[in-house]
Design goal:
The complex is a heterodimer of chains A (424) and B (338).
Chain A lengths: L1 H26 L11 E7 L6 H15 L3 E7 L2 H14 L6 E5 L2 H7 L20 H5 L2 E2 L2 E2 L1 E7 L2 E5 H7 L7 H15 L2 E6 L7 H6 L5 E2 L4 E2 L4 H15 L3 E4 L3 H10 L3 E6 L4 H4 L11 E5 L12 E7 L6 H11 L2 H11 L12 H5 L1 H12 L13 H12 L5 H15 L5
Parallel strand pairs in A: 1-2, 1-3, 8-11, 8-12
Antiparallel strand pairs in A: 3-14, 4-5, 6-14, 7-12, 7-13, 9-10
Helix pairs in contact in A: 2-13, 6-7, 9-17, 16-17
Chain B lengths: L1 H15 L1 H9 L6 H38 L10 E3 L2 E3 L9 H8 L1 H32 L6 H13 L2 H12 L5 H8 L11 H29 L3 H9 L4 H29 L2 H7 L11 H11 L5 H28 L5
Antiparallel strand pairs in B: 1-2
Classes of the chains: A alpha/beta (424), B mainly alpha (338).
């Protein structure tokens, strides 16, 4: 920790210095009286580098054209680092962006910590009625709205049609079929059936929900991850890996999963719309038609894809709040969402965006739309974003054989009860 | 956090101002020794003052603050912060030694400490033996000696994170070079970083690789300072190569080797980058050493647990100080003047 404290102290000292010199040129930005926005809006985008970021950057530049006096500073921050990076900067009081693309689970947490500006009554919340109800849920905290939904998503099985045809199989509807399909693929083509990302427990959720489990029950204030369904779900993923139906990884999971799938080394992966643009750059998918998408395999209790997505939130310490609100509104406009639906197959959060031609034409958007409508929502409590760290550890422990499903479920539940004061 | 900054700086500064105290108690007796020293050495004091102040600010203050935090229940939610219009006062409270009791009675600290000790001892032992071997080889007159030396010092010249990332590519289970080579020889791929035991082996291997140049260079210097007459005399007495190594080389290297062992023990104990960049402490928590776990408490979990992280930090400091004291005492009883 000495290192940490030194770092914090240094950051704090630098922050003081930076705010002292930097305040003059930006403080008058976004003045309301003139009616014209000006100043700088720094935006941290966390979308996938190399594919999604290009499109978002282009859209952000459109805002500059509409408001010539506003300078949009686009910063691409890797998704995995963004949560910590934002917290460091926000707490130090300097270096935080004006607008951040916040994952749905981070939003209530950031709001609870006081890092976000409430958007009620601002330009950012112009057309709230047009947004999907599931998407809006994660933006509310303590009766106020702290973000505007940018994209919504869920998960499905991405499969390689060619490998499926070679093996003579159909997309699996449930876990048993997943295992038999994987076996046939192995026998006929020598490839592994499924790549199950082992370093991120978000990829475990559909198995947990499929067995009828959940992390916590927000209404009842009860921890549920260690009940019978939770234990069973840990057992399911362990069995998939042990039986050879799935490959997994404890480090570089995303990279390895994407590379293996793009090169045709595995036939299936569980993933969401955010991975589509990247997948289509793979040599195996130079013919787009080779990518098939089906629903996640059902567990004993049914299909359970998680609902996720990203919001745009404004940093409470922003020097340019007015321009930031307008920027958020612009980035979540129907036109912007239609464009990302068309170019990246990302799902809009506005009802009217689904009527746009680009969204109608995207098979992937059309596929995921009903999935999102039935996807499992998490309780949007401040701790939602904190539930993954202990789960990640135990999930990896199960997959690498360091612990049993029972112990893993119990350990996760114990750490949740420590985190959530007063919960059962 | 800002509120507490000013508070504890004032407190820390108050302790340091010895002048005030000496003035209060030292007036009736003749001018204190301190004052005389100040009047004689004022020039020297002025010269070192900037350094003392800088060290006080960048080491002293964080240290004091870390110790203070370890006695509270401070976390990300209850420390003071002021962001735009949101003004949140600090609500954390003093909890005494509770954090220490939790750390020392819970399983996590002790099991992490266990692996940290295994990691430190094996890294230092292997690195030292290999470094000693290489230093001995390079101390002979062999063809292309300087080229070998350059090559062996290379790991030292590359920034640590670059070499660690290079190793991470080599270790990659699916696409890494190591498994490709093994595959070529018909051997099943090894889960270098994905199996707890292999991951432990892998991190030690990388740290040994990174640590050898330092040990080798230091020991090479030591070897060259051993007078060749001693070897000649031993040879005249009919000593074998092993006897010469055992009774001339090892004692001759002693001053150097005790220092490098002490240094590399401390470095390895706190070797953050290798573990963090290679495995992030994983899979699960299996390669987590004390410093990476303390970092995790403070930066990776949410809400960030500053109190627990500081507690671990203080415990690490205490352990290393204990080690240094014991090590010095052992050496002194063995007749070393170090």
């Amino acid at each position: 920790m000495r290192r940490g404290i030194t770092a914090t102290a240094l950051v704090a000292a630098l922050a003081l210095a930076a705010t002292a010199c930097g305040s003059d040129d930006e403080s008058d930005g976004g003045s309301k009286s003139s009616g014209e926005l000006s100043g700088t809006v720094t935006w941290w985008d966390t979308s996938n580098v190399g594919t999604e970021d290009k499109v978002f950057k282009k859209i952000a530049e459109g805002f500059e054209k509409e408001h010539p006096k506003v300078d949009v500073k686009y910063v691409s921050v890797p998704f995995g680092d963004a949560q910590n990076k934002f917290k460091n900067a926000a707490q130090a009081g300097s270096g935080a962006p004006d607008v951040i693309r916040s994952e749905v689970a981070w939003t209530p947490e950031f709001a609870d910590l006081g890092y976000l500006a409430a958007l009620d009554g601002t330009a950012a919340l112009k057309d709230q009625d047009d947004f999907l109800q599931q998407a809006v849920a994660s933006t509310k905290y303590n009766g106020k709205t702290y973000a505007v939904p940018q994209v919504i998503d869920s998960m499905g099985v991405f499969y390689n049609r060619k490998l499926f045809k070679d093996a003579g199989v159909e997309p699996p509807a449930n876990i048993d079929e997943l295992k038999s399909v994987s076996k046939k693929i192995k026998d006929k083509t020598g490839k592994t059936g499924l790549y199950l990302r082992g370093d991120d427990s978000y990829y475990f959720l559909s198995f947990l929900y499929g067995e009828g489990g959940d992390l916590v029950d927000g209404a009842d204030k009860t921890v549920t991850v260690d009940n019978a369904a939770g234990v069973k779900a840990f057992g399911v993923v362990k069995d998939l890996v042990d039986s050879g139906a799935a490959k997994t990884d404890a480090t570089d999971g995303w990279e390895n999963m994407m590379q293996s799938f793009k090169n045709g080394d595995v036939a299936m992966m569980i993933n969401g719309p955010w991975a589509v643009a990247d997948t289509l750059t793979g040599k195996e998918f130079s013919d787009k038609e080779n990518l098939g998408i089906s629903t996640v395999p059902a567990g004993s209790a049914g299909q359970g894809a998680p609902q996720g997505g990203h919001n745009l939130a404004v940093y409470a310490g922003s020097k340019n709040l007015e321009a930031s609100y307008a920027f958020v509104d612009y980035m979540t406009s129907v036109e912007a969402q239609a464009q990302t639906a068309g170019e990246l197959n990302l799902l809009p959060t506005r009802t009217s965006a689904y009527t746009k031609q680009q969204a109608v034409d995207s098979e992937i958007v059309q596929f995921f739309k009903p999935v999102v409508e039935t996807a499992v929502e998490r309780p949007w409590i401040p701790e939602t974003g904190s539930l993954f760290a202990p789960l990640n550890t135990q999930y990896t422990n199960v997959l690498t054989g360091q612990t049993t499903p029972e112990k893993a479920a119990k350990a996760t539940g114990d750490s949740y009860r420590k985190l959530l004061e007063g919960w059962k | 956090m800002a509120v507490h900054t000013s508070q504890s700086v004032a407190k820390a500064a108050g302790d340091d101002v010895a002048r005030g105290r000496s003035r209060g108690t030292g007036n009736p007796p003749p001018p204190s020794r301190l004052r005389r020293a100040l009047s004689v050495h004022w020039y020297a004091w002025t010269m070192v003052a900037p350094v003392v102040i800088v060290i006080g600010v960048i080491i002293g203050y964080p240290l004091v603050r870390g110790i203070w935090l370890s006695l509270t229940d401070a976390n990300e939610r209850n420390v003071a912060r002021s962001i735009g219009v949101n003004e949140m006062p600090a609500t954390y409270k003093f909890v005494g030694l509770d954090n220490y009791a939790d750390a020392l009675t819970g399983g996590q600290f002790l099991s992490t400490l266990g692996w940290t000790l295994v990691w430190t001892v094996s890294c230092v032992a292997i690195t030292f033996c290999l470094g000693m071997g290489l230093a001995n080889i390079l101390n002979r007159r062999i063809a292309g000696r300087s080229a070998y030396r350059m090559a062996l010092i290379l790991p030292w010249a590359i920034p640590g994170f670059v070499s660690v990332f290079a190793w991470r590519f080599l270790y990659n289970e699916e696409r890494g070079l190591l498994n490709k080579i093994l595959g070529g020889a018909g051997i099943d791929s090894v889960p270098w970083l994905n199996d707890p035991t292999w991951a432990k082996f892998s991190v030690i291997a990388v740290n040994v690789w990174l640590g050898i140049p330092f040990i080798m260079v230091a020991l090479l210097g030591g070897l060259q300072s051993i007078p060749s007459e001693q070897y000649e005399a031993a040879e005249m007495d009919g000593a074998t190569a092993w006897q010469r190594f055992r009774h001339v080389t090892l004692p001759g290297l002693r001053p150097v080797s005790t220092t490098v062992v002490l240094l590399s023990t401390i470095w390895t104990f706190n070797m953050f980058p290798v573990i963090f960049l290679l495995t992030r402490g994983g899979p699960g928590e299996s390669t987590q050493i004390l410093v990476t776990q303390a970092y995790k408490f403070s930066f990776e979990i949410s809400p960030r647990d500053f109190a627990q992280s500081s507690t671990w930090g203080v415990l690490i400091l205490v352990l290393l100080m204990l080690f240094a004291v014991v090590y010095r005492r052992v050496l002194r009883t063995q007749g070393d003047t170090w």
